Amino acid sequence: MKILLTIFIGVLIFVISPLTFARTTPEDIIQERRQSYEQKLKNYSSESQVKLSEFESKIAKLNKLQTDILNQEMERQSELLEEYISRNNIEERQADGISRNLQDPVENARYWITYAHEAVAYQAAEQYIFNLSSQANIKGDVKAQINELNADMNILIGKVEKSRKIIQGLVS
Amino acid sequence: MNLRLIIIVIFISVAAGIGIFFFSNQKSKPAEQASQTPTTNTAKKQLPSTTPLPTHPPINKNSNLGDEATKLTTPDFSNDYESLKKEVDGSF
């Protein structure tokens, strides 16, 4: 009886608890939001469903268009950094992914360019799913999603601009 | 309860947890692949954008890096959002 109880407690501590935290992935969160959206969508008119689908696609296209432009700039910034390093025969320190020396201007530029470039890639992969409240408020729900994209894009532009200022300061 | 028993219980629990974790990951893989599949319909109209894609000559040994860096500017996307919101007003 004692052994069984011990095993049971051990399973609770070492099996159930880690699994609770290990199973939730970003894909799970998106899937959950998608399911919630599609569940609410069933109660909307077919005309509203078509329009929501169109606007979801337009928001995704707007996100792609803007991230393509920002990605192009990040590639340009990287080209400038590479040419600067080449002209000055700079030997970059091998990054170990843990320590960094941001006092070094080239390493600092490399770090912020990489940071902004990764942020652009992350934004490009974002999926915007409407958070539907009611049929009567459909216009507000769509606009709220547009505003969310706008806000996310402004944050991203801030990162790109920071990286830009650093590379401008380095090469000028 | 002796130390040997505790070690055995921990070992069994961890082994069971690892097994359940990999098994549940194998089961959830089709669901993850499905979530990555786009489900939205393609819009019939092209989204108009007032922001053109910038074009630059390639950077080479003759490029003035300072000048090229100053040419980097942030496009203004505000018109894209305003026109999309106006479309929303006109659609619903």
Report what the structure shows:
The complex is a heterodimer of chains A (172) and B (92). With 172 residues, chain A is mainly α. Chain A has helices at residues 2-22, 26-41, 46-87, 105-124, 138-171. In chain A, helix 3 runs antiparallel to helix 4 (105-124), helix 3 (46-87) packs parallel to helix 5 (138-171) and helix 4 (105-124) runs antiparallel to helix 5. Chain A is flat and about 65 Å long. Chain B is an all-alpha fold and 92 residues long. Chain B is 59% helix and 0% strand. Chain B has helices at 3-36, 65-70, 78-91. The termini of chain B are far apart. The relative contact order of chain B is 0.07. The model of chain B is unreliable at 31-48 (pLDDT under 50).
Describe the structure using short key phrases:
heterodimer; A: 172 residues; mainly alpha; B: 92 residues; 3 helices
Alpha plus pi helix count of chain A: 5
The greatest inter-chain interface is formed by:
A-B, 61 and 55 residues
Mean pLDDT of chain B: 73
Question: Structural class of the secondary elements of chain A?
Answer: mainly alpha
Radius of gyration of chain A: 24 Å
Strand content of chain A: under 5%
What percent of residues of chain A adopt helix (DSSP H or I)? over 70%
> How large is the radius of gyration of chain B?
29 Å
Low-confidence stretches of chain B: 31-48
Helix-and-strand structural type of chain B: mainly alpha
Number of helices of chain B: 3
Largest sheet: number of strands, sense, barrel closure of chain A: none
Biggest sheet record of chain B: none
Please sum up the structure shown:
The complex is a heterodimer of chains A (172) and B (92). Chain A is an all-alpha fold and 172 residues long.
